[in-house]
Structures are given as structure tokens and as C-alpha cells.
Amino acid sequence: MAYYRGLVAPTSQPASAGVKKQEVSLYQFFAPGGVLSRTHPAYEFRRGQLQMAQAVEQALEEKRHLIVEAGTGTGKTLAYLVPVIRSGKRVIISTGTKNLQEQLFHKDIPFLEQALFPDGEGSLNVCYMKGRNNYLCRKKLYDLTGQPVLSGLEEIEHYRAIAAWEKTTQTGDRAELAELPEASALWHKIDARSDACIGQKCSSWDKCFITEMHRRAMESDIIIVNHHLFFADLSIKQQAEYAPDAGILPEVGAVIFDEAHELEDVAGSYFGVSVSNGRVEELCRDVEASLQRSHMLSAAISGALKSLRERSMFFFALLPQGEGRFSFENRREFLEENGDEFTALHHSLRRLDSELQNLPSKPEEVFNFARRAQELQVQFSFLMESEDPNTVFWIERRRGGRDKFNVYLQATPIDVAPILKTCLFDKLECAVLTSATLAVGGGFEYMRRRLGLEHTRESVLPSHFDYENQALFYVPPDLPDPRTPQFAAKAADRIRQLLEITRGRAFVLFTSYAQMNDVYQRLLGELDFPMLLQGDAPKSALLEEFRLTPNAVLFATSSFWQGVDVQGEQLSCVIIDRLPFAVPSDPVVAARVKSIDAEGGNAFFQYQVPAAVITLKQGFGRLIRSLHDRGLLVLLDNRILKKQYGRVFVESLPDYRKTTELEVVEKWFGAEAEERDHGA
Ligand code: SF4
Fold it and tell me: Best substitution site from 142, 173, 198, 248 to test ligand 1's pocket, by max atoms within 8 Å of Cβ?
């Protein structure tokens, strides 16, 4: 699999073939009888696609930002790629999922190259970049050679496979190594994460896969990344005050954010601060391994490491107890009581830092370890002492094995809008934000406010699907409120009735694991259809099984609400248990709610309802994936009918046919069965 295509240009400027705009207009490309109709095997004229392409082209020309909601079936990737190619600008395309990155790189762009340059008279330079931890660090691999640090036969086998592959790979991307398990512990020790990278001072710098990726990006017209890589890079640039060599992504004329509904969450995590007991331990391990290798592990450094490990263990054990994510509001009181332990941890980091600095004729990576120890000191101080009013401080504690906990101290911006405005939108000539789910009640006020977007062009495109005839939306008016204890039993009963009508072929999606497990247990043995449960196998394996198993029913939670595509009859019904409001006790959600209310706003209507609308649209979006799909959508939560805010949800959903009658559902599927019988 190649991660770069096209001729390498001699300069760092993009080598776009720049399709001349006067040769083919967007209309001539997308309209019936146009280039697309002659080249695409499944061509259909899509009005929304042409409108979107025109809007993107205008935004690129006028150097304006654009936010555009384009439902499933619009063909939005071609709608932004064609104007991007015509613009001749270097452009980053950032996506939320790997699937979309792969579709762009392996399918859409090669198709357009063929369609636009049939005689091979032009080409595009395109690169596909992943996060650094997907690539091999040659230095770490070479350092491991001959070291007795591999544990177990499996690691030795993996090492041999990686060492052989390193000699032939062009990219260093672990995706090429199919035999390497996802959770390989060895890979974690030799990937190219920036933590241990010593940059230009590295002896492998010239043939480093990251250096190579950077060079390719500089020579590319189109750079495909994901939101995590994009915001990681942006936060590095921000910290380095936009120094010219900071970060890995080059300057571009525009950024297209596809699946842009995820931006707030991803940006929040990269503009925040996080330290953990695991991160301290990783530093200790790296120092130890490196100095052992170079025979420089002195008694003083061993002592500093021992002290740091102990201090870290004490400090993290003293943090407020609890599992999952919870707020850490009482940091001041905590410090009053445990200030000595915090100071001791700080001192031990400083001690390690100075012992490392004092090492005579030290290898280059030691400077990097010292920098990491300093970074930890600064970040611990911020996390424990900062009074920044736009930051929420919280703790996440997760079980990491027997009697072991991974504890994270976190700081997240409450409002990323001002940060994104200054770091991103004010600096970029043109940003295009698109997704099937951005608008609430037909407008973008919510997204604009959450992301700090001002003066944008906006567009909600007409759908390509005939939702009224393709989807029936059923809400049972008689079920109890989902917040009551009676709900689960009644909901399970109704799900059983519905699945009998649809003959399985359904996703039953829940807002919590507890509810999923409860309903699954109630229905176990009650259904005549194969039941699949999230957690019983990896997500991709479950989806494959669902696709291949006639009449299967999949019980799942949030990770199946988006980025899942099952076309055809196999998925004929999507049932959602309740309106997907974010958990109000989640520390980040709670801080955002509090902040909006404190500023005189109404957090429920300005934040909680719109966020839930976007999630519900995502969940229901699993059903109709093509013009030929037809099926049933069910929301078991009738607050959508009974509460005043329910109107916002109804107005934001596509124009499904709606019913509250089970008989109508039966008829809908009766008609389908008849059609099938006639067809047979
Ligand atoms: S430059 Fe950094 S990532 Fe590349 S080989 Fe050297 S240490 Fe590894």
C-alpha cells in the first residue's frame, strides 16, 4: 500500500496539475451528460453535490470559511475534492475516521485522477498521514538490537518480523504489517511518538519515516490527516508560538474538515493538559533502558528514579478515589492537606532533571528525558495550582490490570471557541466544515458558537434520499419515562415486538452500557434471531458477523452510533433507547453547563439539547445509507413528543414518515414483504 502518489516536485511548492477552470465548469463536471456521468459507474445526478461543490469553490476563491451540512448520499467527498483540485492550492483534508481517510486516498482521489487526467497529462501529489505512533522509530529499533529487554517468545518473534520489514518498507507504517497484533507491547516501545524523539540530532534523521512523511507533505497538493493529528500539530505550533519549523503539517491555503461534528471534542483534548502515573513510569522506564544501554546508569540516577517512582505512587494514590471520569474541584483543599506529597513529587522530578543534566558527555536522548521531566513539572503545577477560569480540572481512573489503576489528571478548556478562533480560524484563509450532522433546527448557531466560527458562509443541502418513503420513524407513546425503573422491562418487551415485525436485521443502540446489558439479558432466549453484543468481539469483527448473519440483531452503545455503514436489507431497523443527552455528571459537560448558565445563557437549550440532536441524527443516520435502503427508526423515549424541547429534535431530523402506532409499523413491513414476494 503506497502512502504517497505522484511525481515528486523539485520544490516545496505543491505540484498541482491545476485543472484549468475554463476547461470544465463544475456544472459540466457534475451535471447529467458531464464528466462524472461518463466516468462514474454508479452515476446519479445529485443536486446537493453540485451545490456543495459550487459553495466550496466560492469559499476557496473568496478566502472565506464555509460550514455545510450534506446528508448521507450527497457525495460530499467529490463535492469538495473537485474544487480543491481546481483551486491549485495546497489543502489539508482532515477526517474523523480512518475509513474516510482510506476512502479518500484509495478510492476518490484515484478516481478523480482518472476522470480529470484521462491521458495521464497531469497528476496529483497526495499524501496520507497518520499519527506518529503508527510509524516505526528506526532509532528505537536499532537501539533494541542485541539488548536483552524483549520479554517472551512472542515479542522476539514480533521483533524479528519488524526488523525484516524495516529493511524494505517505504513508509514505516505498521498497517503494512498485518501479522502484528493491534495490542503489541513491543510496538509501543519502538513507535515514533514525539516523546522520545530527538529530532535533527538523531543519527537516523535522514532516513527517519517521520522526516520522510514531513518531506512528502511539503511536496503534496492534498494532505489527508485525521482530526487528532491535525489538532496535535496545531497545539504544538501554538506552544512553539508558530515557529517556522514547529509541527509537521505545512502551511496550506485551506483546510477541509470532514466529519466536522467531532471538532469540539478533539480540539478540547489537544488544547488541554494531561499527566498520568503511566506517563511518569514511562519516563522512568525510558531513562533506565537508555542509560543501561549506554552503561551510564549511575547510582545517583537510580536513586532519583527510585524516589520519583515512590513519590508518583504516593501522590496518585492520595488523589480523590472513584472510577471513571469525575471532577477535581477541591484541588485547593487537597493541596492544603497533601501539599507535602505534591512538593515531594515536584522535587523528585527536579532531582531527576538535574541528575540527567549533570551527566558528562551524555547521549542526545538524555536531553530529551530532561525536557520530559521539566514538562511534567510545569504540567503538574498547572493541573494542581492554575486558577484559569476557562479550564475544568478532573480525574480519570481506569482499571489497567489486576490491582492496577491508570490515573489521569486532566485539564480541559471549558470553551474551545476562543482558542479555535485565534489559533485556527483567524489564521486560516479558508476552512470548510462539513458533515451529515452539523445543523440544529436547520441552522448552525450551535456549531458556530461552540467552535468560535464567525463570518462564515452556511449551507444546508437538500437530501438526495426520499426519506419520507424510505424511512418510517416510530415513537411509542405509551412507554414510561426512560429515567424510571419500569422503563427497561417495558422497553425490552417493545423491542421484542418490533424485532418480530422486522425479522431482526436491527441495531439496538443504547446510551449506556448498563441499559444495554440489562435489555440484552431480558431478551436473551426470547428472540428467534441471532443476538450480537458489543464487547463480545472487536467492533470490526462484530460488524462483519452482523453483515454475514441473516436476521442478526446487534446490541451496542455509543461507538456504533457513528462511522458504521451497513447497506441493504441486512440493516432494516435502528432502535435507540433514549434521547442521547450527554451524562450531566461528566466533569467536562458539567463545567460547560455551569459556565453557560453563569454567563446568563440557558445551557439546556444552548448546549445540551443541540449536542443531543447531533448525536441522535448520527445514530439514525446508520439506517438509510443508499437510495435503495428502506427501514424503521425507533426512539423508545417519548419525551420527544411530550416535552417542549422535543420539537427541536423533530425539526432537526430528516423528513421521515412518522407514526406512534405499532400497526403502521406492521403495515410498513407487510408492504415490504409483499414487494419481496412479488419480486421472488
Ligand atoms: S528522528 Fe525521531 S522518530 Fe525519527 S528515527 Fe530518530 S528518534 Fe526516531
Answer: 198
The predicted model gives 548-564 an average pLDDT of 89
Does the pLDDT value for residue 171 go beyond 50? yes
213 CB under 6 A from ligand 1? no
Q: 576-613 burial string, b = 16+ CB within 10 Å, else e? A: bbbbbbbeeebbbbbbbbebbeeeeeebeebbbbbbbb
The overall average pLDDT reported for the chain is 90
Selection from 432, 446, 423, 426 nearest residue 65 by Cα: 432
List the Cα angle 317/320/321 in 5-degree steps: 80
Ligand 1 atom at minimal distance to the Cα of residue 200: 1
Indicate which atom in ligand 1 lies nearest the CA of residue 365. Answer: 7
Q: Is the CB of 190 under 6 A from ligand 1?
A: no
- Distance CA(146)–CA(27), nearest Å, equals 63
The confidence band for 6, taking pLDDT boundaries of 50, 70 and 90, is very low
Specify the pTM. Answer: 0.88
- Ligand 1 contact, 198 CB (< 6 A): yes
Of 39-43, 577-581, 590-594, 610-614, which range is least confident? 39-43
User: Rounded to whole angstroms, how far apart are CA atoms 491 and 514?
Assistant: 14
Find all residues with CB under 8 Å of 680, minimum gap 6, and list them.
Answer: none
Q: If you write DSSP's letter for every residue of 606-663 in order, what string do you get?
A: IIIHHHHHHHHHHHHTTT--STT--EEEEE--THHHHSTTHHHHHHHS---EEE--HH
Give 190 Cα–ligand 1 centroid separation in angstroms: 10
Q: Is the Cα dihedral 529, 530, 533, 539 positive or negative?
A: negative
What are all long-range contacts of 549-554, with beta carbons under 8 Å and residues at least 24 apart? 551/503, 551/504, 551/505, 552/504, 552/505, 553/499, 553/504, 553/505, 553/506, 553/507, 553/508, 553/527, 553/529, 554/506, 554/507, 554/508
Give the model's pLDDT for residue 537: 85
Distance CA 302, CA 309 (A): 11
Atom of ligand 1 nearest to the CA of 203: 6
Q: Mean pLDDT, to the nearest integer, of 284-288?
A: 93
Confidence of residue 20 (pLDDT cuts 50, 70, 90): low
User: Bigger pLDDT: 141 or 362?
Assistant: 141
**144 C-alpha to ligand 1 centroid (Å):** 14
Helix locations, 386-486, DSSP H = 417-420, 445-451, 467-470
Question: Which pLDDT tens digit goes with each residue over 663-674?
Answer: 999 999 886 666
Q: Are strands 631-635 and 573-576 parallel, antiparallel or unpaired?
A: parallel
Q: Which of 35, 75, 81 is nearest to 56 (CA)?
A: 81
Give yes or no for residue 137 CB within 6 A of ligand 1. yes
Q: What does the pLDDT read at residue 665?
A: 95
Ligand 1 atom at minimal distance to the Cα of residue 209: 4
Block residue for cell numbers 418490533: 498
**Rounded mean pLDDT, 438-456:** 94
Report the C-alpha gap between 518 and 534 in whole angstroms: 13
